[in-house]
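So, could you explain this one?
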Amino acid sequence: MHPTIVSLNPCTDAILAEVADPAQLLAISSYSHDLAASSMDPAVAWQFPATAGTAEEVLALKPDLVVGSTYMAPATVQALARMGFRLERIGIASTVADSIAQVRKLAILAGHPERGEALVGRIEAALAANRAPAGPPISALVWQSGGIVPGDGSLIADLLRRTGFVHAAAARGLVQADVLPLEALIADPPQLIFAAGSGAGNENRMLHHPALRALIGTRRERLDPSLLWCGGPTIIRAAKRLGAVRRSV
């Protein structure tokens, strides 16, 4: 008998949707029903009920296993413990290796290790198909709304390196959630800007800002922000996008 599961973490939502039976996954996090926050295919996410992550909602569902994040509110963690629920807390994957380990762990917890290995195989195949080509890497900056950049110790930084880019934010000494103002970007531009705005309007403004048009040697591309947040199956889409851009440079 495989355990029933409630996932309170949008990144584990996407993995569990692949490695667990649909009937096992009693609910996923409400983030996965939000197009602005989800890394999942909406058609898949809406197959499952969603919760806001409260202990009361979990109690009503009575799962065998609760999967949360390392950033869960202490009060929720304590309440779930008092109610006797088994809780597994999964951190943010900062490398491909971290994410693969999480896929395997969640597949074992769901009772389907072979599905975890199948997903790992798909991830590794996508990375192999989009590995860095011969020649020098391209300096690339992932630029989010408000000028925020991802740090070097992030999954997207690992994926950039694997697909043939130099992580320009790290080269500048910037860390996770640092802000790179437009003026600083123009003064020392990378070869490529990936605009990862939080909406089509933001992305258009970032990609087509008049000041950026003067950067003759800098190419601008869109990067769906949903590719920045989670590992697991998201790595496959991210690798394909980054690989396609790298090959076109």
Observations:
- The CA atoms of residues 34 and 42 lie 8 Å apart.
